């Protein structure tokens, strides 16, 4: 206890010491900042008093001269804020921040901010520095010295404070080559208003500087970044020089115009033109904004063949003069030939050209080999004039009218000339006359005769035949001529009747055709056999029979019909066949087979028809349906008005009358239900239903199987499963307190409290289990039923003491059931208040007990250091045993073990506060 007191005293002294330190550190002071003001703009002088004393007066003061004369500019005096000169009224008594209008450099200097309080006078000084934004001008000038063109860029910066710094940038980099760029700067000039001016000049020869702009960079405190001023300067550009020779016609003669061209250069290029010929040509000089400069010379084409012309160019961007030269060509004519690629050359060197009779607007082009600028063409036919309708235009012969054999065929000569140069070509034109094609079909002696003629052709045509694969025939041809034209006739013999359609094609080849001509004749096949197949069924003595009919209509002779079953070669010989000859000569054959349906059930029945009109036998197939088991189904039905369940097994048999049904239930050994069989006919279909009625508890969780035995040995089984249901419990969803019954094996009673004088109070329930539905009811201990709404037990009227008691709720589904017991208590507001008060009192007593036990333990441990008697420890140990557990008493503690055992003691305090809320 003494240690606790000392600890608290030390803590209080430490807090007092800290508070004394904090109080001693809060001394008043004045907070001011220096100001940099821009001439012509507004600046703010800031001064704040930081302290707790009341300010009696405050002033901004500026010293006027060295005699310590000063002037009050703004502040607080006689309870009012005031201002004079260029300063505004201060913000407040403790904050003398003012706005200053910087009208001249004279406002620069030191300003004193002072505060008078009851504790004394506090002051501090702020210095105002005045700066002025400079005015920047950039000028460009040029001069020529000793034939070299120079440019000077001057950057003049005036009215700035302090003096600015000027640098230069060319292509965003400082000019580094001193042999190209020179920079000269003027002295700084001071003005009467306190500002300064300075200039810098960048000079360079124009032909050595390729950038078209120069930038002046000015650095000054009033500028956050260097001020960049860019101006355009003149630059020299290297020209593109070339020489060009063009031919022009003047007065029917050809002239060469040779031009020396300089484009894209600055300044103009000096151009000289020279020839290695003796004659002096005509010269022309011109300048165009688009094409640049040019110097031209005009030379007669025939007089200056092979002459060399040279252009010489000089420009400041050239390290030496550049030249371009051209040699004028010498003319020649090496030959002339036809443009038509289909022409050929005969043994005498003449061009052979073939034309088709009847063509119009035929153009025959001449291709001249040589380099002459122009030429003249003359043509003759058989050493005479050109025939009518044939015209020579330029180097093209054009036949306007239709081409004729007599008029246009012959030998042509064309001569190409230019001054003394000549070239000749001979053209032998022949005209091809296409044949007249005719095809004829006749039937003779059991054969079909096809004749194909190609008449009156020049030259003779070639006739051939194309037949389908696998078809052959006898063919021959003959040839005749008349007045220079030729005729060819081809004949082929084919069978009169064919099982399929044939197409015979006559192919005619002739030079007048771009592609071979063809004529085709289609020979129809013999009439196809029309085959149909159908089936029908009937019932006799409870057995199903099938009849299949196959009919074939064709030309004579009659077709042969054969029956096959499945994919085997086994034929059916027991069939009924008949043949009928119709008035038009056609024949109809019919065949029928009749058999028991089960004999060929599930197999294919094929009708095969053979006839000479078909290349192979034709088949028609019909499928005999397999005998399927009837449709069997089982179901489980819960009867509404009975406690018994119903298992239903139904079957639909599509069979004849008089059929017996073999339908049974395979049931477990304990089956005690009742079965019944119901059967009815709908036409030839028999519907049978076998039912089995049983209580749910008898077969719950078991399988019930229905077996159907078909007549032909087919057995069908269907099984239905009877579900296993359960209701595990009925839960109360409201907050409850479990109460154990007097008997250990009895169900737990749930205690629940309702509020007195409240209506429409509900108790929510939940049924746990897998039943599809259930009946839920609740009643009081006296047997009276309680109103239920779904899973809620409802108390619609006000709750009174009469509603107190034990309620039992039961959920049931057939033989499955589960119950829950609920003890309903009624709580009024007065009882609730008393219970809360009792709870608070219990909590307070518990806290006091804890404090008392803690104090007692501390005192006991202090006394144990002076007196190590074993009796006191035993007494404390016995008192700290958990109540209600005498069998877990601590063992006796030996005196030499008392110290270790004291550290292992544990204390347990149990607070049990029970409430029905």
SS field, number of helical segments: 6
Task: Give unreliable regions as ranges.
Answer: 1-7, 15-25, 869-917
Overall 3D geometry? Answer: flat
Instruction: Please count the beta strands (DSSP E, at least 2 residues each).
Output: 65
Helix-strand category: mainly beta
The biggest sheet amounts to: 6 strands, mixed
> Which architecture of the largest domain per CATH?
Sandwich
CATH level-1 class of the largest domain: Mainly Beta
Pfam families: C2-set_2
Organism: Solea senegalensis
Membrane topology: Single-pass membrane protein
Subcellular location: Membrane
Short description:
The protein has 917 residues and is mainly beta. The protein has 6 helices and 65 strands.
What do you see in this structure?
It is a single chain. Strand 27 (344-345) and strand 28 form a beta hairpin. This protein starts with a helix and ends in a 14-residue tail after the last helix. The longest helix has 38 residues, at 829-866. It contains six helices and 65 strands. Residues 1-7, 15-25 and 869-917 have low confidence and may be disordered. With 917 residues, the chain is mostly beta strands. The protein is flat. The chain folds into eight domains: 24-131, Sandwich (Immunoglobulin-like); 135-232, Immunoglobulin-like (Sandwich); 240-327, Sandwich (Immunoglobulin-like); 333-432, Immunoglobulin-like, CATH 2.60.40.10; 436-477 and 484-523, Immunoglobulin-like, CATH 2.60.40; 530-623, Immunoglobulins (Immunoglobulin-like, Sandwich); 631-721, Sandwich (Immunoglobulin-like), CATH 2.60.40; 727-827, Immunoglobulins (Immunoglobulin-like), CATH 2.60.40.10.
């Amino acid at each position: 206890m003494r240690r606790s007191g000392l600890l608290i005293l030390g803590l209080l002294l430490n807090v007092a010491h800290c508070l004394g330190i904090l109080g001693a550190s809060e001394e008043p002071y004045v907070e001011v900042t220096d100001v940099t003001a821009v001439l012509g703009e507004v600046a703010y002088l800031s001064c704040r008093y930081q302290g707790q004393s009341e300010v009696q007066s405050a002033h901004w003061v500026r010293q006027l001269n060295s005699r310590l004369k000063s002037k009050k500019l703004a502040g607080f005096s006689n309870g009012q804020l005031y201002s004079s000169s260029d300063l505004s009224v201060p913000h407040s008594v403790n904050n003398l921040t003012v706005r200053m209008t910087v009208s001249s450099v004279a406002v620069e200097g030191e300003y004193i901010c002072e505060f008078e309080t009851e504790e004394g006078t506090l002051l501090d000084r702020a210095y105002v520095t005045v700066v002025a934004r400079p005015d920047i001008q950039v000028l460009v000038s040029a001069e020529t010295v000793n034939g070299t063109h120079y440019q000077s860029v001057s950057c003049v910066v005036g009215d700035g404070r302090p003096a600015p710094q000027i640098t230069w940038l060319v292509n965003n980099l400082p000019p580094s080559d001193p042999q190209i760029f020179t920079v000269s700067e003027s002295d700084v000039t001071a003005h009467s208003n306190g500002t300064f001016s300075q200039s810098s000049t960048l000079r360079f020869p124009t032909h050595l500087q390729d950038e078209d702009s120069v930038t002046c960079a000015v650095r000054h405190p009033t500028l956050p970044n260097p001020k960049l001023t860019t101006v355009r300067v003149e630059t020299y550009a290297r020209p593109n020089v070339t020489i060009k020779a063009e031919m022009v016609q003047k007065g029917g003669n050809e002239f060469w115009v040779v031009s020396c061209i300089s484009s894209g250069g600055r300044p103009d290029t000096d151009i000289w033109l020279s020839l290695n010929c003796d004659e002096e040509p005509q010269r022309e000089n011109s300048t165009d904004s688009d094409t640049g400069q040019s110097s031209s010379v005009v030379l007669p084409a025939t007089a200056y063949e092979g002459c060399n012309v040279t252009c010489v160019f000089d420009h400041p961007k050239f390290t030496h003069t550049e030249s371009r030269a051209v040699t004028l060509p010498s003319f020649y004519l090496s030959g002339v030939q036809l443009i038509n690629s289909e022409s050929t050359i005969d043994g005498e060197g003449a061009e052979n050209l073939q034309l088709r009779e009847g063509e119009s607007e035929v153009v025959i082009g001449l291709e001249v080999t040589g380099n002459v600028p122009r030429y003249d063409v003359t043509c003759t036919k058989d050493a005479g004039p050109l025939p009518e309708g044939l015209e020579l235009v330029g180097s093209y012969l054009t036949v306007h009218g239709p081409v004729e054999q007599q008029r246009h065929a012959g030998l042509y000569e064309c001569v190409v000339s230019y001054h003394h140069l000549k070239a000749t070509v001979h053209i032998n034109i022949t005209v091809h006359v296409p044949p007249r094609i005719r095809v004829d079909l006749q039937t003779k002696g059991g054969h079909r005769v096809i004749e194909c003629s190609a008449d009156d052709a020049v030259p003779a045509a070639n006739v051939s035949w194309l037949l389908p694969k696998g078809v052959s025939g006898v063919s021959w041809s003959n040839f005749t001529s008349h007045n220079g034209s030729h005729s060819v006739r081809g004949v082929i013999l084919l069978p009169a009747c064919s099982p399929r359609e044939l197409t015979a094609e006559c192919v005619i080849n002739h030079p007048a055709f771009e592609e071979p001509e063809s004529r085709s004749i289609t020979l129809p096949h013999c009439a196809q056999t029309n085959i149909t197949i159908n089936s029908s069924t009937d019932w006799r003595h409870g057995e199903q029979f099938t009849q299949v009919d196959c009919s074939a209509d064709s030309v004579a002779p009659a077709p042969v019909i054969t029956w096959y079953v499945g994919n085997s070669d086994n034929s059916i010989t027991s069939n009924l066949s008949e043949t009928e000859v119709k008035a038009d000569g056609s024949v109809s054959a019919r065949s029928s087979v009749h058999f028991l349906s089960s004999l060929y059930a599930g197999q294919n029945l094929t009708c095969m028809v053979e006839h000479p009109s078909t290349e192979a036998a034709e088949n028609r197939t019909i499928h005999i349906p397999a005998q399927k088991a009837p449709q069997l189904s089982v179901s489980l039905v819960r009867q509404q008005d009975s406690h018994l369940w119903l298992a239903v097994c139904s079957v639909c048999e599509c069979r004849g009358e008089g059929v017996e049904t073999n339908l049974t239930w395979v049931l477990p050994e304990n089956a005690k239900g009742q079965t019944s069989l119901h059967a009815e006919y709908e036409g030839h279909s028999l519907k049978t239903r076998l039912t089995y009625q049983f209580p749910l508890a008898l077969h719950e969780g078991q399988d019930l199987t229905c077996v159907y035995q078909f007549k032909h040995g087919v057995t069908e089984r269907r099984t239905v499963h009877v579900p296993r249901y359960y209701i595990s419990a009925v839960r109360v969803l409201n907050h409850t307190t479990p109460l154990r019954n007097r008997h250990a094996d009895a169900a737990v009673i749930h205690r629940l409290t309702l509020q007195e004088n409240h209506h429409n109070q509900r108790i929510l329930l939940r049924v746990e289990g897998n039943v599809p539905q259930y009946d839920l009811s609740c009643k009081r201990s006296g047997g009276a039923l309680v109103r239920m709404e779904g899973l809620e037990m409802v108390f619609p009227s006000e709750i009174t003491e009469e509603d107190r008691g034990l309620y039992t709720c039961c959920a049931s589904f057939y033989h499955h059931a589960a119950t829950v017991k609920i003890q309903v208590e009624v709580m009024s507001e007065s009882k609730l208040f008393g219970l809360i008060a009792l709870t608070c009192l219990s909590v307070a007593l518990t806290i006091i007990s804890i404090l008392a036990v803690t104090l007692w333990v501390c005192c006991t441990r202090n006394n144990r250091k002076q007196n190590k008697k074993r009796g006191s420890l035993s007494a404390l140990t016995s008192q700290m045993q958990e109540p209600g557990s005498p069998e877990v008493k601590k063992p006796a503690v030996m005196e030499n073990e008392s110290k270790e055992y004291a550290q292992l003691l544990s204390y347990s305090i149990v607070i049990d506060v029970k409430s029905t809320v």
